[in-house]
Amino acid sequence: MSNRPRRARLEDVHELAEAMPHVTVEQGPAGNPVYQVGRKSFIFFRTPRPDAFDPDTGERYTDVIVFWVPSESDKLALVQDPDSPFFTTPHFQGHLSVLLRASRLRELTVRELAEVIQDAWLSRASPARARRWLAEHP
After folding, report:
1. What is the spatial order of strands in the sheet that 40-45 belongs to?
2. CA nearest to 108, candidates 8, 36, 35
3. Distances from the Cα of 126 to the Cαs of 18, 38, 84, in angstroms?
4. What single-letter DSSP state applies at residue 3?
5. Which residues contact 62 (CB under 8 A, 6 or more apart)?
6. Which residue has the higher pLDDT, 138 or 18?
7. What is the pLDDT of residues 45-79, one digit of tens each?
8. What is the rounded distance in angstroms from the CA atom of residue 9 to the CA atom of residue 107?
9. In the chain, where do the E strands start and end?
10. CA angle, corner 78, sides to 49 and 132, nearest 5?
11. How do the domains of the chain map onto residue ranges?
């Protein structure tokens, strides 16, 4: 039996997001899931857009997931490392979110993914909900 941490999968995004309190799941225009807390999105599965594409083929990415982040410094910490699976595009300049292709989820452990999802939820939850959750999860 291996002691290596399990790598993240697409199912983990859904399970971890739905496990956060007060979460609702809306459907985007193409039936794409949008996870919300207090009617504020904190994760959504993006439809193919012209700003996120394969630099070699020009094909639009079909598997982009958007995660809100607490601050610009958190965003920079996730996107500045060239080995990081997180990225951004000019369309998201000034927006407190990062992008991740589902095809690169396995570069994260489940624990790393959980931290990103928890931070996304905390960045969008009401202050009272965030304080309550933090008190229950020291």
Report:
1. 23-27, 33-37, 40-45, 64-68, 97-101, 86-87
2. 8
3. 17, 7, 29
4. -
5. 48
6. 18
7. 999 999 999 999 999 999 999 999 999 999 999 99
8. 10
9. 23-27, 33-37, 40-45, 64-68, 86-87, 97-101
10. 100
11. 10-127
